[in-house]
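Thread: Newbie trying to understand structure tokens

Hi all, I'm a second-year student working on a class project, and my supervisor (Dr. K.) asked me to get a predicted structure for one chain before our next meeting. I've only ever worked with sequences, so writing a 3D structure as a token string is new to me. If someone could post the tokens and maybe explain what I'm looking at, I'd be very grateful. Here's the chain:
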Amino acid sequence: MSANRREFVWRSLAGLCAPAIAGASESRATTAGSTVKSDGDVPTDIGRHFRDHGLEGTFAMLAVHDQTLLLHNEARANMPFSPASTFKIANSLIALETGVIADENEILKWDGQQRPVPEWNKDHSMRSAIAVSAVWFYQELARRIGETRMREWIDRIGYGNRDISGGIDQFWLGKGLRITAREQIEFLRRLYANELPLAARTCRIVKDILVLERTSECVLRGKTGMLGKSGPELGWLVGWVERGERAWIFASNIAMRQDTNAALRKSLPLEILTSLRLIEPAR
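---
Reply by user tm_fold:
Sure, no problem. This is what the structure looks like when written as tokens:
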């Protein structure tokens, strides 16, 4: 099988720009002592999850402890897309850092406008708003931050193409801001490692509200995103898994269709994480 037909490639972070290994259907690297194995105990055909659902997409994952990167559909992993609601992670950080909201529990009053997701139509705190991805709440935070400060902080944290020209409460919703799956991983790695130019309290709060699941074995943090004017077009899930002192940062996006179940933007990458034995199977 030729190099451009392979399903994925493991790479050292130091060699991310190096050409792929030619002539290999799979390129594996053993991560000693980690949950991800390369000895046949763990399914490694990441692409089958996309094929099973008839979807095009990418899955990228960085093992922070040994700096190895897993990529499915490398070309798409390097392709910039609107972050959609995954930008709520950065928006939360900037809102807290600028003080436009006191903490994750401060309530913003709903404006009474009926929106298509019933869970949005009520007062919200940052903790509850991010859980249901309430767009109006984060649009209000962005307006409070303002264009000048938003541009300054987007530059400071180095988020995507840094383009906020699409309007202060729209730029992450298909209106200018773009980010690749690879860039999502680097942004989240810096958040995980407390390397962003932000207060420790800010990062601690946002990490806490991103928890999707916590067990005795692992913590899963993440945020979905979906974009589409007349129907779903793009679906994201980004986040990381912590197991003890080790972490795996991941970013997945799929090209959605009118008939695509929106839940797949989350369930598909979770299938992959389960197959890699990083999270437990859903019950």
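A couple of things are worth pointing out once you decode it. Residues 1-81+180-283 form a domain with the Beta-lactamase fold (CATH 3.40.710.10). The CA atoms of residues 194 and 204 lie 9 Å apart. Feel free to ask follow-ups in this thread.
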